[in-house]
Amino acid sequence: MKNYKKSGQMGENIGAMINLLVGVGVAVLVLIFVGTLAGSTYQLQEADIEALGRTSVTGEVLSTVTKGTPQNLVNNLIYTDTFTLTNGTNLASVGAGNYTVTTSGVFNLTTATYNQSESLTAAYQYKDTTVSEHIKQGVISGFGALEQTGSYLPLIVIAFVISLVLLLVFGLASGKTGGGNTAL
Fold it and tell me: Could you tell me if 104 and 88 lie in one domain?
């Protein structure tokens, strides 16, 4: 009885199969890690992003103020707790009970009476949302890109599988046949 020694063309392709499995696993882990890290970072910095654009205004002159006539301030998104009002003639502070101001920047004199020759001077802080909105749009765009990349992962896996199958087929086909010719 003769002893036959096994030989084959598959040995070199084992590494390719292992690389395929490890590569797909690493790609999935990277997508999960990047998504989680980006989401956590945004949550941690969201308060700081919202605080961006807080701007102070001092000396906005309200010149034609009459009781009961609402007037729009120059800016909107007012932080009402920062709003102060002084009489422009004698620089006396006007008490907060004498007026109302809304977060949308509408000022209304409620109790004090001033003639139109006197002006009132307002100081307040408002939010300029330009910077924070650009940051939010950048974050949304980044998550959209991550989602789009993740949606291509099955296609990438299929491409790896097809290339692995082709490697196996070419590896088997490169074996020698009777006259030393290759099968391809």
Answer: yes
